[in-house]
Structure formats: structure tokens, C-alpha cells
């Protein structure tokens, strides 16, 4: 499974207040600090499945090394490896590479450079210790996670798709809504586990294998049954590692995966002058939310239905739901998903805090709007009925100058 990163507690960590190895500043302060920075930054990502030990100590040591290099980003460490998306000053790239290569477990790990980069992809450095570097919901001891699909470069991926291979998007539904490979199967699930289960069910229904069939296969239109193929892709490649192994465990023998994911695919086709079979934008898990691969707009505004691939989070913080929202609706609804959320978002901060007290965030249960027509119906009801009749959707709100009666003593 690779190199092991082990060791005892380093001397410089023994007397250190480890609670200081984190950034607790408010996002607005961090955003303003980044705006003033005025230096060129590079956003990149990398992952590696490798056995790590004493992971908490490694986490602290990396924070100490990387904070002085002005590294920002989100890094997950676990006993199974590392999964990182970071932004750092371009001038510090060599030092950052040296820091990685100094550890056997991370030496020569490939980087994927962002397609588009405004230097503001991350606000702070976050390094977390997790059980897994991807929340896949799978029991790794139930299948051979090292038996992965063949890694394919962009040109080979093109060749196989043109020969009729079945292309499957292994991302969540809210990612594929703004961009995808032509003709790909797009799972409706909003979690990796939901997506992989949906894919297995789809493949089983497609091929209807007999009970004694050992090596199952798919037979896409245009391909002879003797040479079927499944091609997987995701953002940077990490999810396809587990997905391809899981499919092979379930008997689908001929599985390939796009090496480096959509991010490296974009680099390869640009370098080789190849046309893009991916259309639209690539969803990314940072402040940018998306990076454009082609000028194609493949989605519509979830609020008004006009063509748009502008993706955003609802700015009402207890909602925070992802949605595709055009510029006109963003202005109309104050960057919120509905009139109800807008009414809260435009309140003074003190009133917002009072209203939020004790309320959970909706996006901890559901991350994105999955029913655009349902959202439009909700907006119509709130605008045409509730607002017209009551003047407010939140009569419970404590507004300035409108305080509830205080108990007498």
C-alpha cells in the first residue's frame, strides 16, 4: 500500500499549545486580508493512498511547516493517506514541493494545477484528521481497494468513448449539473455512496447477467459484446480509485478511469490541442465553486429557468444551499434561494443572530437544491400569497425597535 509515515512526538511539538495550530479568524477578516495580499497564488490539488501512522502528530507538523509558506487550503489526513486542495504563493511552490518530498509517504506525489485561478480559492489553512480521505461510505475490508481500473490519459479516453464505451460520472448530482462529458451517465444521487449504488444497479439492469456469469460486462450501442468497457471520471481522480475497485469487485472486469480527473484532462487537451468532450464548468470544492472548461452553458437558473451556469450558495447562513442562479435572480433575491431566506439575510446582523439561535443548518442534511421546479413553486407561493397577505414571511423575527415584552419582576 506504499510508504509508512511514522514517528514519535517531535520535540518542537511537546511544549507547544496545539490549539493554536488552527485559524479561528472570521471569514470576512480573512477575505479582506487576502484582498490586500497582492501576490500571485497557485491553486493545486493532490492525493495519495498510502499508509500513515501517528496521523495527529503529522497533522501538527505539517501545519507548522506550511503556515509560514502562506499555504491556505483544506487537507484531509487519515491512516489511508492524504487528500489536499491548497493555494499558496507561486513563489513558494519549490519550498512546498521540498516539504512534501522530504517525507517518503508524499515524495513525488503528482500535482493537479487549477484550470482557472483568481488567487482566492481558500481563506485559511485547515488540516483535519479523518477516518478516510474521501467520505465514501464503503467498507474497505469488503473488497480489494488496490484492484483499481486502468488509468487513461485524455487522448486514450477520447478514443475509447468514440469506440462506444459507457462513460459514467462519479460525482454528485450538484456537480454534474453545470458540466459533464458528452453522453455520460449522470447519477441522481448527492453522495458518493448513493452514486456508486445507483451505478451498480444501472449496470445490472443494463446487462441482465445470468446467475453463472462470472465476469459481467456492459454492451453500449456501437460496441461488440466481446469488448465492452466502462469509463469513469470525477474531479481529480480520487473518487474513481474507490469506484473502479468497487465495480471490479462486483464483477465488472473492464473498467477504466480518467487519470487526474477533469482538472488534468483540461490541461492535457490544451497542451495537445484536442477538442474537449467535457462541456461546461467543472465544480470545485473551494471558494471559486467552479472553473470553466468550455464556453458551453449546459444548465439553467433554478429560480427563473433562463440559461445560466452561475453556481452559488444561498447567503442565508442557516440555509447555505447550492443552486444555479443567474445574475438577475441573484440581484432580485439578494444572493438567496428564496424570498424567505432573503428576508432573513437583509436583516441587521444582530437580528439575524437572534433568529438563528438554536436553528440547525439545512445544508448539513441536503447540500443542494435538487428540485428546481419545486423551488420555483415555493417562490411563487411566497411572493404571490404569503408576502401579499402578511407582508412578512417571518412574523417571529425580532426587529430593531420591535422587541418582545420583557417579563416583570
Give an overview in words.
This protein has 409 residues and is α/β, with parallel strands linked by helices. It folds into 3 domains: 119 residues, Alpha-Beta Plaits; 133 residues, Rhodanese-like domain (Oxidized Rhodanese, domain 1, 3-Layer(aba) Sandwich), CATH 3.40.250.10; 92 residues, no CATH class. The chain is 32% helix and 16% strand. The protein contains 13 helices and 14 strands. The chain has a 5-stranded mixed β-sheet with strand order 4-1-3-2-5. A 4-stranded parallel β-sheet has the order 6-10-9-7. Strands 8-11-12 form a 3-stranded antiparallel β-sheet. The radius of gyration is 24 Å and the shape is globular.
The CA-CA distance between the termini, in Å, is: 69 Å
Computed CA radius of gyration, to the nearest angstrom: 24 Å
What is the domain total for the residues?
3
Strand content: 15-25%
What pattern of helices and strands is seen along the backbone? HHEHEEHEEEHEHEHEHEHEEEEHHHH
CATH H-tier superfamily of the largest domain: Rhodanese-like domain
Mean pLDDT comes to 87
In total, how many beta strands? 14
Number of helices: 13
Provide the low-confidence segments as ranges: 12-17, 209-227, 403-409
Major sheet summary line: 5 strands, mixed
